Amino acid sequence: MRNLLTDVPGILVGNAHDAQAATGVTVAVFERSVVASVATLGGAPGDRAVTLLEPEMTRGMIDAVVLSGGSLYGLDAAGGVTAVLCRQGKGAQFGGLTLPVAVQAILFDLTNGGAKEWLTEPVDKRPPYWDLGRDATLAAAQDFALGTVGAGFGATTVTAKGGLGSASTGTRQGFTVGALAAVNAVGSALIGDGPHFWAAPYEQGAEFGGLGWPQKIPPEALAVRFKGQPAPATATTIAMVATDATLTKAECKRLAIMANDGLSKALRPVHAPNDGDTVFAVSTGLAGSGGEPPVLTELGTAAADCLARAVARGVYEATALPYKTAMPDWKTRFGGGRR
Amino acid sequence: MRNLLTDVPGILVGNAHDAQAATGVTVAVFERSVVASVATLGGAPGDRAVTLLEPEMTRGMIDAVVLSGGSLYGLDAAGGVTAVLCRQGKGAQFGGLTLPVAVQAILFDLTNGGAKEWLTEPVDKRPPYWDLGRDATLAAAQDFALGTVGAGFGATTVTAKGGLGSASTGTRQGFTVGALAAVNAVGSALIGDGPHFWAAPYEQGAEFGGLGWPQKIPPEALAVRFKGQPAPATATTIAMVATDATLTKAECKRLAIMANDGLSKALRPVHAPNDGDTVFAVSTGLAGSGGEPPVLTELGTAAADCLARAVARGVYEATALPYKTAMPDWKTRFGGGRR
Q1: Alpha-carbon span A306 to B219, nearest angstrom
Q2: Measured in whole angstroms, how far is the alpha carbon of residue A237 from the centre of its chain?
Q3: Model confidence over B184-194: pLDDT tens digits?
Q4: pLDDT digits (tens, 9 = 90+) for A256-311
C-alpha cells in the first residue's frame, strides 16, 4: 500500500506544474472507463463536463478526473487531458471515433504571486493549462508526489501553504478506498495557531506528523479565520474519492456527498461562499458489488475519513513557494524544517 | 427590431467556423455582466462553468454564453472567449485581476463529414475551438447571420440540416425577450415528411416560411423518428434566452426552465437520452423589475415562444454542408431552392 489514491487498482495519477506561474494540474486516469458522479458543496465552483455526472443523465462512464489551478482560466486543462486519452484509444468508441470523458474542477490560485502572463497579456499569451493537462496525463503513474505539486502547486490555506494530498484505506468487506485532494481552502486545516490538524482523529500512523489531538483546544482556536478578510478572496478544495467496489452512478453521487464530510472534518471553515469545494466519486467496479446500503455506508464513511487524511497530508507535505510574501509551510513552522 | 437576440439591449453575438472541420462557435457577450442561470433537460449534456449558475452558488454575474460544436472537445472554446474578454477588461475586477465568466454548452457534430483532424492526429493537432471562441468574440456585433454559421455550422436534425436560429419579441409590460439556438436535435423541427414546422403556431410574419399549420396531421407524422436508429447517435440543441427585465438568479433559473418548453414546442422528440439540451437564461436588468410571478410568467412564456421560433428559424435558414451524404436543407427541399 502506497497510502495513495492509486492503491485502488486501475487508477494512475499524474502531476504537472508551471513554476513561473506557480500553478499546476493533477489528473487521475483510469485503465478502463469508470462510473462516476460529483457533489459540489462549495459556493463558488468552476468545472467542466460535470452535468453529465448527475444520476439522471445518460452518460455513465468517464476516463479522467482533472484537478487544476487557474480558476476559470484553468478549465482548458481537460482539453489537453482528452487529447492524450484520445491518442491512447481510451474512452467510448462511437462511430469510429474515440470519445474519452475528462471531468474537471478548478481552484483559485491566481493571486499567489506567480507570473500569470495570460492575465497581463491576454490572447497573446495563452493560459498554460491545456499543455499542463497533456503533460500531467503523460506523467500518470502509480507513484506520484504530494505537497507543492500538480493542482496543489500554487495552493494555500489561511494559515499554511496548501498542496496535494492523498490517502487510502480498506473496508472490512475487502474493498479499497482512496482519496486525492488539492487543498486551497478558504479556511485552515490546523487547529488555531498550533501544529495540530483537525483531521487528527483519523490519522493513520504518522502520515501527517503523528501529533495527535492537542491536550486542550483554547477558545480562540475556534474563532472563525479565513482568507480575504476584510477583502474578498477565493479559495477552494477540489478532490476525488475512488473505490474498487461496484457502484451505480446514483451510489457514486451518495459516495461523493458523504466524502464531502471529510472536508468538514479536516477544514474550518469549509463549503464557504468563496470556496468552490467539489468532490468527485469514482467506482472502478473491479472488486464486486458495494451498493447495498450498509456497505455503501461503510464505503462513504471510509471515503470521508480518507479525504480528511488526504487534506491534512496535502498541507503537511507542502513546501512554501519561493516568494517573500508566500504562505509558510507546515514543516518549516512546526516540523523543525525538514529541508 | 432585427428579430434577433441582440434586440435585447446590451447583448452582442459573434460567430466563427472552421469550414474544413464543419464546426463552429457562437458567443453572446454582454456590455455589462449579467445575471444568469441554466436548465439542462437533455440527457447527454456537455458544459463548462455551469455549476456556478445554480441559485445556491455565490457568483451571480457572467460575461458570455458560449455555444459550440465539437462535443466535449469543443469545451476549449470558452478559453478563447475568456481571453478576449480579459483583454477587453470585461467581468469582475478582483485583486487587480480581470476575471470574466464565460459559460458554455456543446453539441455533438463530430460525425457530420467534416475533417476532424484533432481526432485522427490527437495531441499533434489541437481542436480548433479555443481559436474559434476567440474569433467569435472578436466578431461580436448586433447583426449576425443565421443558419449554417457558428455553433450551427455543422448541426443537423433527423430530417433536415440544422443551424443557428434567433428571434425576439416584446411583452405588454414593455420588456424585450430574445432567444438564440444552435439546432442539432436528435429529433425533427418538421411535421412528418412535410415542410411545416412544429413551431408554426408561434411564427411571427413569415420568419420561417409562413406556411402555417398543415391542414391535417397524418398519423405517420406522429411516429417517433430520431437520429441513430438502430445505432446510437448523439445530438443536442443548445440555446439561450435573454431579457432586459431585472431578474434574480433564481428567477433566471425559472426562466431557463420555462424556456425549455420552447424546445418541446419546436422539436419532436426533444430532451432525449442522447440530446444534451441546455438552455441558459440571462437578465441584463436594464429595464426594471420583472420578478413578480405574473410578470415572470409572461416572460417565461415569451421566452418559450421565442425559443421555439428561433429553433424553426435555425432550420429554415440553414444551408446543406457540401458533402454527398450531407443532410439536405429546408429551402432546397421545400423552398424551391433560394440559392
Answers
A1: 59
A2: 6
A3: 999 999 999 99
A4: 999 999 999 999 999 999 999 999 999 999 999 988 889 999 999 999 999 999 99
Query: Are B110 and A97 in contact (CB < 8 Å)?
Result: yes
CA B322 vs. chain centroid, Å, equals: 23
Q: Which of A23, A56, A58, A106 to mutate to test the interface with B (most CBs of B within 10 A)?
A: A58
Q: CA–CA separation, B16 vs A246, rounded Å?
A: 44
Residue in chain B nearest A278 by alpha carbon: B51
Mean pLDDT by 10 residues, chain B (339 residues): 97 98 98 98 97 95 98 98 98 89 97 95 97 98 98 96 98 97 97 96 98 93 85 85 98 98 98 96 94 94 98 98 92 76
| 8 Å CB contact between A197 and A262 | no
Q: What's the grid cell of residue B135?
A: 474569433
- The CA distance from B277 to B186, in Å, is 10
Phi, psi of A262 (to 5 degrees): -65, -35
CA distance A328 to chain B (A): 21
Using 50, 70 and 90 to split pLDDT, how confident is the model at A339? very low
Q: What is the mean pLDDT of residues A39-63?
A: 96
User: pLDDT per residue over B62-75, tens digit each?
Assistant: 999 999 999 999 99
The domains of chain B are located at 5-324
Q: What is the DSSP letter of A152?
A: G
Find the helix or strand (DSSP H, E) in which B301 lies.
Answer: helix B293-316
Nearest to B160, CA basis, from B135, B126, B184, B133:
B184
Please say whether the beta carbons of B148 and B319 come within 8 A: yes
- Average pLDDT over chain A reads 95
Min distance B270 CA to chain A CA atoms (Å):
14
The separation between CA A202 and the C-alpha centre of its own chain, rounded to angstroms, equals 18
Are the CB atoms for B40 and B50 separated by under 8 Å? Answer: yes
Q: Using one digit for the tens of pLDDT, what is the confidence trace for B121-155?
A: 999 999 999 999 999 999 999 999 999 999 999 99
Nearest by Cα to A18 from A97, A133, A122: A133
Query: Cα separations (Å) of A214 from A171, A217, A222, A270, A333?
Result: 28, 7, 13, 21, 17
Cβ atoms of B147 and B319 within 8 Å: the answer is yes
DSSP secondary structure letter of residue B147: B
Is residue A211 packed enough to be buried (19+ CB in 10 Å), middle (13-18) or exposed (0-12)?
Answer: middle
Which positions in chain A touch B111 (Cβ < 8 Å)?
Answer: 95, 97
Chain B positions touching A75 (Cβ under 8 A) are 48-49, 75, 78-79
Report the CATH architecture of B5-324: 4-Layer Sandwich (3.60)
What CA–CA distance (Å, rounded) separates A319 from A328?
8
Number of Cβ atoms within 10 Å of the Cβ of B20: 11
User: How far does B120 lie from chain A, in Å, by closest CA?
Assistant: 8
Report d(CA A55, CA A77) in Å as an integer. 25
> Which positions in chain A touch B122 (Cβ < 8 Å)?
83-84, 86-87, 98
